[in-house]
Write a structure and sequence with these properties.
It is a single chain. With about 350 residues, the protein is an alpha+beta fold. The chain folds into 2 domains: about 230 residues, Rossmann fold (3-Layer(aba) Sandwich), CATH 3.40.50.300; about 120 residues, Beta Barrel (OB fold (Dihydrolipoamide Acetyltransferase, E2P)), CATH 2.40.50. It is about 20% helix and about 35% strand. A 6-stranded mixed sheet has the order 7-8-9-3-10-11, sandwiched between helices. The protein has a 5-stranded antiparallel sheet with strand order 2-1-4-5-6, covered by helices on one side. Strand 18 and strand 19 form a beta hairpin. Helix 2 runs parallel beside helix 4.
Length: about 350
């Protein structure tokens, strides 16, 4: 558990944020300039706030009232940045071992070689950072942070420079990291799609202030007000199923989704992406239409804001559908109603994990 109450003013920017995050993966999101990175800097100790406190479990890291200040190196916080921030003169092995070697031998808990294997890096150990792809660099950065066995892992827009295929892959690794090592994570992003895909709770920041804190999907109306926050994508883990000449089926949490023909083997794990605005919602099962995907589900929640509505549908996989308030009203859709999700196979993007 990490709790904080922070105030800081820098030039024209003011941060005034209070929160309490649990042991899961908590997202902090909002538009550029909202104060996301500033909040992380205060938690990590790389920036000293003007007033307030930061407490990790029962340990106070900072208190202006009690004049407590724990230095960054004594907080045991791992940080992964947007570009990975690898040491360019060191190979992958040396990058991963860098912080680990600074820990006294009797306190070392994780083997760097085992971490490299866990992150799929074993065949890259002698490579330099300049020879790696963006996704590979981020995996090295995550492994380097984990090698120090941090009490808290901070991720500052770690996927911002990656394309959708690599974003899905790193999200998958991060979920595995949390499940395996049980390290609390704070995940900063301006991507609502990433936030919903990875986090169990989320804080929305605007202009240095907290404007919402809830489960990720409940903050969608806040996100829809800002054009600087991306359009929503449903991102799922899947497994390649059967194929015909033109279509491939991908199994996602017990549901088969038809996509364009994939040159992949049956059983191969993939990531699937589908825009919320690419899905048609129907109150009754449609007939005689060209769309290859018609999936039955139940409405779990709805959120509306500025004429835009997000509908959360549980169909096995949990889909977010974007439509207008008029459309929702005309369809007579309410929470608990059965509905049908309709979308083309060409709307589904498939990526390697």
């Amino acid at each position: 558990m990490i709790s904080f109450n922070l105030q800081m003013k820098r030039s024209e920017f003011r941060l005034d944020a209070t929160g309490e995050f649990g042991s899961g993966i908590t997202a902090v999101f909002g538009p550029s300039g909202a104060g996301k990175s500033s909040l992380l800097d205060c938690l990590a100790g790389s920036v000293r706030p003007d007033s307030g406190y930061v407490q990790m479990d029962k340990t106070t890291w900072y208190s202006s009232l009690d004049k407590v200040w724990v230095t960054p190196e004594n907080r045991r916080v791992g940080t992964v940045y947007q570009d990975g921030a690898l040491f360019p003169h060191l190979d992958v092995k040396s990058n991963i071992e860098f912080g680990w070697k600074l820990i006294p031998e009797h306190k070392r808990q994780l083997d760097p070689l085992e971490l490299a294997d866990f992150m799929g890096l074993s065949n890259l150990m002698s490579r330099g950072p300049s020879t790696l792809s963006g996704g590979e660099r981020q995996r090295v950065a995550i492994a380097r942070s984990l090698a120090t066995m941090p009490r808290l892992l901070l991720l500052d827009e770690p996927l911002a420079s990656l394309d959708t295929a690599r974003r899905g892959s790193i999200l998958n690794y991060l979920k595995r990291v949390h499940a395996e090592f049980d390290i609390p994570m704070i995940y900063v992003s301006h991507s609502i799609s990433e936030v919903v895909a990875i986090s169990s709770s989320a804080m929305m920041l605007e202009a240095g202030k907290v404007v919402g804190f809830d489960h990720p999907t409940a903050l969608l109306p806040y996100a829809s007000k800002s054009e600087t926050i991306d359009k929503f994508e449903n991102i799922f883990d899947g497994v390649i199923g059967s194929s015909t000449d033109y279509l491939t089926k991908v199994e996602v949490n017990g549901v088969e989704i038809s996509t364009g023909r994939q040159s992949k083997c049956m059983g191969e794990r993939v990531m699937v992406s589908l825009g919320a605005n690419q899905i048609i919602l129907a109150a009754e099962r449609p007939e005689n239409i060209s769309a290859r995907n018609i999936i039955k589900g139940k409405v779990v929640e709805t959120w509306s804001n500025l004429g835009k509505v997000f509908v959360h549908v549980d169909a096995g996989p949990k889909f977010i559908v974007e439509l207008t308030e008029n459309a929702l009203k005309d369809l007579g859709i309410l929470i608990g109603c059965d509905v049908f999700l309709v979308f083309k196979s060409s709307s589904v993007a498939v990526f390697d994990t």
